[in-house]
Amino acid sequence: MCTINALCLDSLPKHLDQLIEWKKIYGRDYINFTLNILRFPSFQSALVLGESLRNQYKQDLIDWMGKHKGHSYLHEHEINHTQRLIDYLDVVKTPHSDAFDMPKLLNDFYKFHAQYDQRRGKDFAQAFPNLKEWYDSIQV
Question: Which of 37, 112, 122, 140 matches a 20 to 30 Å C-alpha distance to 48?
């Protein structure tokens, strides 16, 4: 069970590839996955990412599906969950009906991770180098 949020999309295709490898070793009925879209807290949603990042991650998933769709090691629900995520990244603009203020969501995202870095001695940009430019561009 994978909960899809703003931070996991960069490595999701690699994670799914690992699951496919395990399916090949242990059998498709022993390993399966679902992709559950995080809606709360809204500022952690994949939708806070800029449109170009969402489009990049959507294309990465389209490419992944093109490589694996139709193979016997994927269950129908796994294909459906992946397609639902692709559609979500493409069409949906707000995490849910009460979360439509994108500047506030971005502000909350930035402050949460800045405070986490400070409290835990972490570095967001080091942990997520592919998101550094986007993260640094958030206006707080």
Answer: 122
77-131: pLDDT as tens digits: 999 999 999 999 999 876 666 656 889 999 999 999 999 999 999 999 999 999 9
Residue pLDDT, tens place only, 7-47: 999 999 999 999 999 999 999 999 999 999 998 999 999 99
Domain ranges across the chain: 2-101
| pTM for the full predicted model | 0.91
Q: Rounded to whole angstroms, how far apart are CA atoms 68 and 47? A: 25
Contact predicate 102/55, CB 8 Å: no
CA gap 100, 67 in Å, rounded: 35
Distance CA 41, CA 37 (A): 11
